[in-house]
Structure prediction request, 120 residues.
Amino acid sequence: MKKRRAKRRFYNWEIEIAKGNTDKFYHSTDWDIAREKVLERDKYICQFFLGKWNDGIHKPNKYKLVQATMVHHIIPIKERPDLALDISNMISLSFEAHEIIEERRQFQFKRKKVITKERW
Prediction:
């Protein structure tokens, strides 16, 4: 569990996120608490690769147990700032699943090295 700050500031996150202060939100104690609750609720298991959740567009190739390290907002906070701390709007995901859902995964093709015979 993360060590909490002694003096905690209270913000109206709906207004702050509407202003565009999402970085401030993601570095806040309120987010840390909500994130821990979601990870504990889902037992630190990625719900995408477990097959319990998909966004309707992306689906996993195969189901497997993967440790969840990230929490994803189902409805983005930029669309609905009022749901920023609502744990029913959050899901536990692994890094790989989060990159797939956010469509940030970049496919890199490895080139095969051409091995030719040495000719002298």
Remarks:
- Residues 13-101 form one domain.
- The CA atoms of residues 41 and 92 lie 9 Å apart.
- The longest strand covers residues 70-73.
